Amino acid sequence: MEFMSEAGRKSMIEELEEARDHFHDVDKELMKITLDIAEGYGMTEEVFSEIMEQMLSEANADL
User: Fold this and answer.
1) What is the DSSP string of 12-41?
2) Is residue 3 pLDDT above 90, yes or no?
3) pTM confidence score
4) Could you give the angle at the alpha carbon of 34 between the alpha carbons of 30 and 38, nearest 5°?
């Protein structure tokens, strides 16, 4: 029950921040790979971005 103490909460926050940073780094690498593959099929970065924006908009509409 680490969340019961200030030190425990601080430790948990640090772990979450590290996880966030890790996921951000992984996302950047996956986006590079995905864009390279998409470009191989003739999809431009602009078209890919439009598709991602549309998917995000649809996902947010379900909230």
Assistant:
1) HHHHHHHHHHHHHHHHHHHHHHHHHHHHHT
2) no
3) 0.68
4) 175
In this structure, the number of other CB atoms found within 10 A of the CB of residue 56 comes to 10
How far is Cα 12 from Cα 33, in angstroms, rounded to an integer? 32
- pLDDT tens figures, 29-44: 999 999 999 999 999 9
**Cα 8 from Cα 1, distance rounded (Å):** 8
Tokens 């890919």 sit at which residue?
48
Report d(CA 33, CA 43) in Å as an integer: 13
What's the chain's average pLDDT?
Answer: 92
32 residue type, one letter:
K
What are the distances in angstroms from CA 12 to CA 3, 9, 17, 21, 43?
Answer: 8, 5, 9, 14, 41
